[in-house]
Amino acid sequence: MSQITIYDTTLRDGSQTEGVSYSVNDKVKITEKLDDLGIHYIEGGWPGSNPKDKEFFKLMSKVKLTHAKLAAFGSTRRAGIKAEDDLNLKELVASQTPTITIFGKSWDLHVTDVLKTTPDENLRMIYESVAFLKSKKREVFYDAEHFFDGYKGNPDYALKTILAAQEAGAQCVILCDTNGGSLPEEIRKIINEIKSQMDVDLGIHTHNDMGLAVANSLAAVEAGCVQVQGTLNGLGERCGNADLGVIMSVLSTKLKRPTIPEANLKRLTETCYYVSEISNIKLADNHPFVGHSAFAHKGGVHIDAVLKNALAYEHVDPQAVGNHRRFVTSELAGKMPIVLKAKTMGIELDKKSPQAVELLKALQNKEHEGYQFEAADASFELFVKRHLKGYVEFFHLEGFKVSTEKRYDGKVFAEATIRIKVKGKEEFSAAQGDGPVDALDKALRKALTKFYPTLSKMHLTDYKVRVLDTKSGTAAKVRVLIESQDETDAWTTVGVHENVIEASWEALIDSIEYKLLKDGAQHSRKPKSIAKQ
Fold this sequence. Notes:
Elements: E1 5-8, H1 24-37, E2 41-45, H2 51-60, E3 69-75, H3 87-94, E4 99-105, H4 108-113, H5 119-135, E5 139-145, H6 147-153, H7 155-168, E6 172-177, H8 184-194, E7 201-206, H9 213-223, E8 227-230, H10 244-253, H11 262-265, H12 268-279, E9 296-297, H13 300-308, E10 326-327, H14 336-344, H15 354-369, H16 377-388, E11 396-406, E12 412-422, E13 425-433, H17 436-448, E14 459-467, E15 478-485, E16 490-497, H18 500-519
Parallel strand pairs: 1-2, 1-8, 2-3, 3-4, 4-5, 5-6, 6-7, 7-8, 9-10
Antiparallel strand pairs: 11-12, 12-13, 14-15, 15-16
């Protein structure tokens, strides 16, 4: 089977995600990570639209990529001027990228109502723009914007637009479902109708407005498209673009269509979290293939079956995409998650042994107090470590104080001061935050980072509080869940107390300690022989 070319547009389409704003340095980092993954084309942005993208291409002109080709993106020439006089096309050439991708209108509605020009002029705009870029010795891809909507409304004209790009020398014509409103069967039917008239490669570019971007991309591949455009993690405007991580996983593991090197696919999960980290958009736990819960098993029946044969409840080996299997502790799972967690730590524990029974009893006591480890995998791992291997402190709390102040101008802020002992040294720090937990987190990591530098690579991504006994009113216990993330992973920790700050502190400590254990940091002192309860 022929290879499917992967064209990543995270740096352009992905940057149009609400809440995402990449710096030039962010874009360089993501480019290098995508190149390392083995992506074939990386679209860096639109140099004719903003100074940031111009600076990015200028910087990248001095960088040699290993696997990927860098592409600059822009539009066809404006109506009524020559291609060689169009500033947008000049900027594309000046970007010095080996590949240039331009889009043009395929839908006559856009030609007349948006561009306010004639159908014939639009065809000339497409042909002359592609021909001009080809004359500059560049590889040229043509994105047929709104192609499927255009074809449904006026198939003859939509076809003329892509034939114009082909005749002008475009190496690949990419069919775009720009509004994300097409169905897989429509995609498949239209491609089958037009492909016999195309002499160049066809590609697909879909949006996820109906949740069908991945399905539509796969349908296009089955119909003959050999290039797939999209973003990592499905980032993009409105409901996002086609998720390349899911598409590559399906193509490689299910359809046996080669994309990036198979060995590189094992770095997919890490890469997705890396992009999530820089984008400051949390990767959903239930994200297909790479999500934290994608291969998590909770029910005792499921766990027992997976231990006997993983195929019973897993459609693919999680290691194929760089993820891992997890067994979630809960009242449904019994002692098995404890036994399995101990095994990952190099400790063989018989589930019928007194130690396993004791651990299960301690776990049940914790759950009775309000701890919910099924939603806090990192705290559960620490719970097991503290009982089986002895508790090792990375630092010792001497004390902290948190206060909240509202000023005359209405501004509310919190301040935290903290005293800790780390590796025999006493540290004091203070910090302000939007709230008491934010201030406490900042003060603690400010004191710790000089001893444990990797803490600068993590941050809190979510914070949830639940009242456990509403009848007790303001004296009720609360359960705090804190979600944290670094460049490769995400984890959740839990704390329970009548005081919300103390509950938050418990979860915060677990979050930081889990990060340090994960990174193999050196402890501040020797292990205690008695586990922390």
